[in-house]
Amino acid sequence: MAAFVFDLDGTLVDSVYQHVLAWRKALEAEGIALAAWRIHRRIGMSGGLMARAILRETGRPFAPEDAGRLQRAHEAAYREQLGSVRPLPGAHALLSDLSDRGVPWAIATSGRRSSAEPAVELLGLDRRPVMVTRDEVPHAKPDPDLFVAAAGRLVSHTSRMP
């Protein structure tokens, strides 16, 4: 069976810079000034990995609750940025065409469901997609858990289709 698994941020929706700005705001609230390019190069990691990597890079000692607080601050700052997130050109047409042709596809994102669902809504899809988020797997990218889970759901989903 041929199928596609898509990432969300930077692949289907134009949200990378909104994430960078949200991380920068969260970091600044903790008294950490970090250049945007240092944040940008890590976009795509899960929030927990991102927070720990950034805190390590700054040389500041940190505890797990520091990473959790930073991640929650990022999520709040990203929600403030949602109004400027847009679907990437052709994303809706591609996903609609795949669906029309009966080609299974899914979304696998390192983001949490709470930030992924509003971004997916922007795609204006006719049906709710098969989606796997960071909250549903033991490890996010670069580990393959997201993609393995998405592939498994596609197999399960297509086997139930008439």
Explain how this protein is built.
With 162 residues, this protein is mainly α. The chain folds into 2 domains: 86 residues, 3-Layer(aba) Sandwich (Rossmann fold), CATH 3.40.50.1000; 69 residues, Putative phosphatase, domain 2 (DNA polymerase, domain 1, Orthogonal Bundle), CATH 1.10.150. It is 52% helix and 9% strand. The chain has a 3-stranded parallel beta sheet, with helices on both faces. Strands 2-3 form a two-stranded antiparallel sheet. Helix 6 links the parallel strand 4 and strand 5. Helix 3 crosses helix 4. It is globular and about 50 Å long. The mean pLDDT is 89.
Give me the secondary-structure topology.
Elements: E1 4-6, E2 13-14, H1 16-29, H2 36-40, H3 47-58, H4 64-81, E3 86-87, H5 91-100, E4 105-108, H6 113-121, E5 130-132, H7 145-160
Parallel strand pairs: 1-4, 4-5
Antiparallel strand pairs: 2-3
Helix pairs in contact: 1-4, 3-4
What would a concise description of this structure say?
The chain is mainly alpha-helical and 162 residues long. The protein contains 7 helices and 5 strands, in the order ββααααβαβαβα.
Order of helices and strands: EEHHHHEHEHEH
Strand order of the largest sheet: 1-4-5
End-to-end separation: 15 Å
Count of individual helical segments: 7
Overall mean pLDDT stands at: 89
CATH architecture of the largest domain: 3-Layer(aba) Sandwich
Which fold name fills CATH's third level, the topology of the largest domain? Rossmann fold
Low-confidence stretches at least 5 residues in length (pLDDT < 50)? none
How would you classify the helix and strand content by structural class? mainly alpha
Kindly state the percentage of residues in helix: 40-55%
The biggest beta sheet reads: 3 strands, parallel
- Tally of extended strands? 5
The domain count comes to 2
